[in-house]
Amino acid sequence: MALSAPIGIALAPRPTAANAVDDVIERARLLQRSGIDRAWFGQRFDVDSLSLAAVVGSAVPGLHVGTSVVPINPRHPLVVASQAQTAHAASHRRFTLGLGLGARDLEEPAFGIRTERPIRRLREYLTVLRSVLTTGTVDFTGHTVAAAPPLPAAVAGGDGPDIVVAAMGPQAVAAAGELADGIVPFLAGPRTLGGDIVPRTEVAARAAGRPRPRVIAGVAVVVTDRPEQVRARAAEQMAFYESIPSYRAVLDREGVGTAAELAVIGTAAEVETQLRRYVEAGATELLVTQTDLGGPEDELATWRFLGALGGVPV
């Protein structure tokens, strides 16, 4: 029986790629042929996720694309609004803008910036973005953000993409429920989603008179017949999350010691059972990450299984 939630896959260039963009387009086409209709792109210090979403959304017709996620601190919201509208137009209105608060330990040495009052900045950032993306302009002066473009900021065909936030802490969840269209929690297991994050988000959305928010649960998934080997690799690759305070807090709430404990790795039947727990906990969509942990054959098998299981259009 199909899962009652769309499934998207996080895509990144392969380390051996001769051209990162060409490689992701090729992978996106293969993803679509596997029955999956949405792809997500993370932001690091190399390939730009918003540019990649625009290119892939244009090159692969019918594919929904999104960023998961763009850190808000290094970029002014007017710049992000321009990029987001361009991606929305390029993909023919199949783009979702995913934002995140960022990680101080990474951003401070890289950009030489220090951001105080992150929740206030998030609220002000979302206020500016929503105004530009829905009206084409903004005139706002806050404590951390000011925006008053002297020329129109609208992009024809690019208005109104959904905004979702990588929110897990109570204040970030409240801000996202009030001012965004949804959340993208990662490493928040079913217990934390159903018992805390989803109810908080829905309460904030209702209080603000907004529709039910999208809850796009991020989870690492591999369908494999070598679970122990893949779990060992997951433990290596996911360990760094355990030292980031926001992720450590959500792992503690879920009652697990390591990030890899929340990776869904096993047979197709085992994976399906675990993913249904996320939907039962309130996830409206799934964002599947790290499907490459078991190698190319397992990755393709995972995509094909998930394409048969989900892929319900929003």
TrEMBL record:
Keywords: Oxidoreductase. The keyword Lipoprotein does not apply. Its EC number is 1.-.-.-. GO terms for molecular function: oxidoreductase activity. It is an enzyme of class 1 (oxidoreductase). It comes from the Bacteria. It holds the Pfam family Bac_luciferase. Residues 13-284 form the Luciferase-like domain. The keyword Oxidoreductase applies. SUPFAM superfamilies: Bacterial luciferase-like. This is TIGR03564 family F420-dependent LLM class oxidoreductase.
